[in-house]
Amino acid sequence: MCAAYSHELPRYGVKVGLTNYAAAYLTGLLLARRVERLSFSTDPTFYRRICFSLFIFFPQLLKKLNLDKLYVGQEEPTGDEYSVEDVEGKPGAFRAHLDVGLSRTTTGAKIFGAMKGAVDGGIDVPHSVTRFPGYDAESKQLNADVHRSHIFGQHVAAYMRKLLDEDEDAYKRQFSRFIKLGITADDVEDMYKKAQAAIRESPEHKPIEKDRSNVVKKRWNLAKMTLGERKEKIAKQKEEFLKTLESGKD
After folding, report:
1. Does the global pTM surpass 0.70?
2. Is 84 exposed, middle or buried (0-12, 13-18, 19+ CB in 10 A)?
3. Which of 44-48, 87-91, 153-157, 181-185 has the lowest mean pLDDT?
């Protein structure tokens, strides 16, 4: 149907940290908001029968299904448990099932960040909170504040502050792109908040236009010869072979 990738996030203001939990959340949110406008059928029960596979990069579903206004999801992420419920008398929420593939399913894994982004974006994904950051296996409860801090990149911001205090040279090496863009630990949460708002406002995919006028094509095999060129090549080979024979007789 469609796809979303973390390398699209710079368009929404996130130009660094495209592989962390917060970026995975944004990617799932981006995918979810795209899919809601696709019309498959006029039958309201049709949507209930759809089963879609959600991977780390979830498609732009809600927009394509024309459900983006009906199922807006959770616009202010709290990190707490949230599930999309069907609206009575309206098409059912788009349901997807998480397919983790070969990804590790440890608590706090980024794939669950993408799933959480998809759920908060309005996709009905059956799940539990046991693999979200902040879940305590002993008390069997989720600390929503810890999960929210990961959604907004506060675990990254805390590490930035810690590294800056302990080893400034290491901080400059590891966060050189942050420094180059003028992003400090205090700016991280606002960066992700603005990205979430921008995604909801305009989730459509916009292909990057590249100038291909100066592209030099490379060949890894020989160009096909014409009939005349093949005959000429054979004639030269014969001539060289005959000369070799004559030199051998001498």
Report:
1. yes
2. buried
3. 44-48
